[in-house]
C-alpha cells in the first residue's frame, strides 16, 4: 500500500494535486492547515479537488483552519479527528488543532482535549497490526517540534500518548521549519513540513514492514 501524507497546505492546492498525480497513492493523509483562515467553501473545494486524484482521504484540521471545517471533513467521509478508521490491517486515528498558544489562532484546544480525542480514536483501531496517528501538532521535545529559536513547542499530550501506547507511525506538521523524522519508543515520527515544499510517502509492504520517505519538491 502506498500512502502520501501532506500538511500545512495553506492554499497550495495545485501543488498537492501535482503531488498526487505524480505519486498515485492508495491513501492521502492530510495533517491539518488545509487553509489559512479559509471559509468552508474554500475548504470543501480543496478536499473535493484532491478526491479526484485519490479516493481515500483521512484528514484533520490545523490551528489555521476554522473548527467549523470539521463538519466538511465529516460530510466528505474524510474526518479522522477523535475517530478511527481501518483499511485492511492498518488503523488510522487522529486529532485536529493545536494546544493553546499566545498566537490565539482559530483552532486551539487544551492538552486534555487533545489527549481525549486521541484516546477516543485509538479505541476504534487498537487491535490493528499497524497503527498510524495523524496529529496536526508534533509531540513535545522532539526534533520535529522546534521553532526557529530552538524552542520545543509541540504537544505534551501527544508525547504522553506515544510513550504509553503502541503506535507505529505519527504523522504531523504545524512547525514549518521542523520537517524531518524522529522516534519515541517504537513510534516513527515524521513532520511533513509545508506542502508546497515537502511531502511524505509511506510504503507499507506487509503487517510488520514499512518505509517512510520525506520528499522535497
Features:
single chain; 217 residues; alpha/beta; Purple Acid Phosphatase, chain A, domain 2; six-stranded mixed β-sheet; five-stranded mixed β-sheet; 5 helices; 13 strands; globular
Tell me what you see in this structure.
The protein is of the alpha/beta class and 217 residues long. The strands form three sheets. A six-stranded mixed sheet has the order 4-5-8-9-11-10, covered by helices on one side. The chain has a five-stranded mixed sheet with strand order 3-2-1-12-13, covered by helices on one side. It has a two-stranded parallel ribbon with strand order 6-7. The protein contains five helices and 13 strands. It has helices at 13-23, 40-51, 70-75, 111-125, 156-164, and strands at 2-6, 27-31, 56-60, 84-87, 90-95, 98-99, 108-109, 130-135, 169-172, 180-184, 187-191, 198-206, 209-216. Helix 4 (111-125) packs parallel to helix 5 (156-164). Strand 1 (2-6), helix 1 (13-23) and strand 2 form a beta-alpha-beta unit. It has one domain (2-216): Metallo-dependent phosphatases (Purple Acid Phosphatase, chain A, domain 2, 4-Layer Sandwich), CATH 3.60.21. The radius of gyration is 15 Å and the shape is globular. The relative contact order is 0.17. Helix content is 24%, strand content 30%. The model has no long low-confidence stretch (mean pLDDT 97).
SSE arrangement:
Blueprint: E1 2-6, H1 13-23, E2 27-31, H2 40-51, E3 56-60, H3 70-75, E4 84-87, E5 90-95, E6 98-99, E7 108-109, H4 111-125, E8 130-135, H5 156-164, E9 169-172, E10 180-184, E11 187-191, E12 198-206, E13 209-216
Parallel strand pairs: 1-2, 2-3, 5-8, 6-7, 8-9, 9-11
Antiparallel strand pairs: 1-12, 4-5, 10-11, 12-13
Helix pairs in contact: 4-5
Amino acid at each position: 500500500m502506498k500512502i502520501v501524507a501532506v500538511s500545512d497546505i495553506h492554499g497550495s492546492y495545485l501543488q498537492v494535486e501535482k503531488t498526487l498525480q505524480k505519486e498515485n497513492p492508495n491513501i492521502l493523509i492530510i495533517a491539518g492547515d488545509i487553509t489559512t483562515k479559509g471559509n468552508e467553501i474554500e475548504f470543501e473545494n480543496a478536499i473535493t479537488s484532491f478526491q479526484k486524484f485519490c479516493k481515500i482521504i483521512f484528514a484533520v484540521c490545523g490551528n489555521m483552519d476554522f473548527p467549523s471545517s470539521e463538519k466538511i471533513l465529516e460530510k466528505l467521509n474524510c474526518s479522522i479527528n477523535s475517530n478511527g478508521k481501518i483499511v485492511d490491517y492498518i488503523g488510522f486515528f487522529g486529532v485536529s488543532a493545536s494546544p493553546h498558544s499566545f498566537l490565539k489562532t482559530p483552532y486551539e484546544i487544551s492538552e486534555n482535549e487533545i489527549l481525549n480525542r486521541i484516546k477516543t480514536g485509538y479505541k476504534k483501531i487498537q487491535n490493528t497490526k499497524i497503527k498510524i496517528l495523524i496529529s496536526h501538532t508534533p509531540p513535545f521535545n522532539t526534533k520535529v517540534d522546534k521553532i526557529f529559536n530552538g524552542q520545543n513547542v509541540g504537544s505534551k499530550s501527544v508525547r504522553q500518548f506515544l510513550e504509553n501506547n503502541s503506535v507505529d507511525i505519527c504523522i504531523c506538521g504545524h512547525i514549518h521549519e521542523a520537517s524531518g523524522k524522529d522516534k519515541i519508543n517504537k513510534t516513527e515520527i515524521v513532520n511533513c513540513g509545508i506542502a508546497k515544499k515537502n511531502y511524505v510517502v509511506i510504503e507499507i509492504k506487509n503487517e510488520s514492514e514499512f518505509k517512510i520517505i520525506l520528499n522535497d519538491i
